Amino acid sequence: MNIFLAFFVLLVSSQHILGDEKVRYDDFKVYRLTPKTVQAVEALRNLEDSNSEYDFWTAVRGVGYPVDIMVAPHLKYRFNDIINSGEFDAEVYISDVQELIDNERPKTRLAGIVDWTDYNTLDEINDWLRSLVDEYPDNVSLVKAGTSYENREILGVKVVFNPGNEDRTVFIESNIHAREWISSAVTTWILNQLLTSKDTNVRQIADTHDWYFVPVFNPDGFVYSHTTDRMWRKTRVPYFLCAGADPNRNWGYYFNTGGSSSNPCSETYGGPSAFSEPSTKTLSEFITTIGPKLGAYIAFHSYSQLMLLPYGYSSSHLDNYQDLYNVGVKAASSLSQKYGTKFQVGNIVELLYVASGGSMDWVKGTFKTPITYTYELRDTGRYGFILPADQIIPSAEETLDSLVTILQEFDKIKKN
Fold first, then answer.
1. Which residues on neighbouring strands pair with residue 298, listed in sequence order?
2. Where in the numbering of this chain does the Peptidase M14 domain appear (predicted)?
3. Contact predicate 304/376, CB 8 Å
4. Which residue among 87, 104, 267, 376 is the active-site one?
């Protein structure tokens, strides 16, 4: 075997294209680094852009803003050289990623049950969606919103309680990033509440809007995160040396104008072209069929406790930014009432970083949808993507409180 072929096999194996042995993260640590200088910021950005050995759980923002980086055990001495440079405040934020994974879910569970005490598989979620059609035949219909590279259906439901709300359609997406399990759990819990809750405010928003819920936008990656690699983020489309593109950098609105990588091994690889991923292409085609009727588009991600406003390609306050911000502040206040959870509100670029090619940007830019928010759900890093299942219901409860505020406040704006 020549050197190039050996190198190719090594890289492909590390990306889990070959074999199906479950990836473990024993002794992997998450470090929180806070750069002290502009030079330190640039050094971290260069490390993120050029080195796929380190997994940046949060992106580099600027001086004084913490960055969470997962480091493999065999890299810890090399990483200590970075820490010891004196350019960063540093702490070990998660001492053993595998320990969190092992304790993320209940020790015993009833397979096939969707009750929000545990995270569910794709098959469990889809079977539950199908069951809703039988249980609520007058209100719920199954929709096929797209198809993935591995030929999985991207399923959702349309929920209608009253006629005449077509131009007040709310679309909720989640799990476009595979490892963000809390996002689809929150989506399905909110869907269940709209069907079952007797709360006056919940009934008001349920009955005065049409709804689309698509819990898993990235089914191939989501399945892979359950069966093989809990920390998988991207799609599973094979590219040279590595698998997958970031499906939230792959949408055709200001595609690849910042915040995405051209390296297929990067977690933020945007793909070779807009809508190169079958999932994003077919989802965009489905959304286009209802786009002119969209009153609201809500995307759930994790983590960081943020409510993000368009756009990801620019820090300019465009379109109805001020209304989105003002209502977002009120929604964040509502969200904090039950458990004291604090969310920041603002433009994607200002709060995080440039991130072009996202789904919310595409919807906002294409259809001028008035209500557009991307949530980064719990937490702020103590568990990160591995949020314990006992936080599903509290996270979902507070998120629904904020969604009620958003829709009711925008109704007031419309009336004025």
1. 172, 373
2. 118-410
3. yes
4. 376
Report pLDDT for 108: 84
Q: Based on the residue annotation, tell me whether 376 is a catalytic residue of this protein.
A: yes
User: How far apart are the C-alpha atoms of 385 and 200, rounded to whole Å?
Assistant: 33
Per-residue model confidence as pLDDT tens digits over 53-77 = 899 999 899 999 999 999 999 999 9
- 28: tokens are 């992997």
Of residues 327, 338, 322, the one with CA closest to residue 397: 338
Alpha carbons 125 and 131: distance in angstroms, whole number: 10
The side-by-side arrangement of strands in the sheet containing 88-94 is 55-56, 67-71, 29-35, 88-94
Q: What is the DSSP string of 310-346?
A: S-SS--S--TTHHHHHHHHHHHHHHHHHHH----EEE
User: What does the buried/exposed string (b/e) look like for 151-165 if buried means 16 or more CB atoms within 10 Å of the residue's CB?
Assistant: ebbbbbbbbbbeeeb
215: helix, strand or coil: coil
Which residue in the block uniquely carries the two structure tokens 């489905």?
286
Q: What is the pTM of this model?
A: 0.94
Mode of pairing for the β-strands spanning 67-71 and 88-94: unpaired
Q: Which domains, from first to last, does the chain contain?
A: 29-103 (3.30.70.340), 122-415 (3.40.630.10)
State the maximum Cα–Cα separation within the chain, in Å, rounded to a whole number: 72
d(CA 246, CA 368) in angstroms, rounded, equals 24
Dist. CA 186–CA 174, nearest whole Å? 9
Q: What is the pLDDT at residue 51?
A: 67
Question: Tens of pLDDT along 292-350?
Answer: 999 999 999 999 999 999 999 999 999 999 999 999 999 999 999 999 999 999 999 99
Which residue ranges of the chain lie beneath pLDDT 70?
A: 1-20, 51-52
Q: According to the model, what pLDDT value does residue 2 have? A: 42
The torsion region of residue 31 among left (phi > 0), alpha (psi -120 to 50) and beta comes to: beta
Q: Rounded to 10 degrees, what is the CA torsion of 18, 385, 114, 358?
A: -80
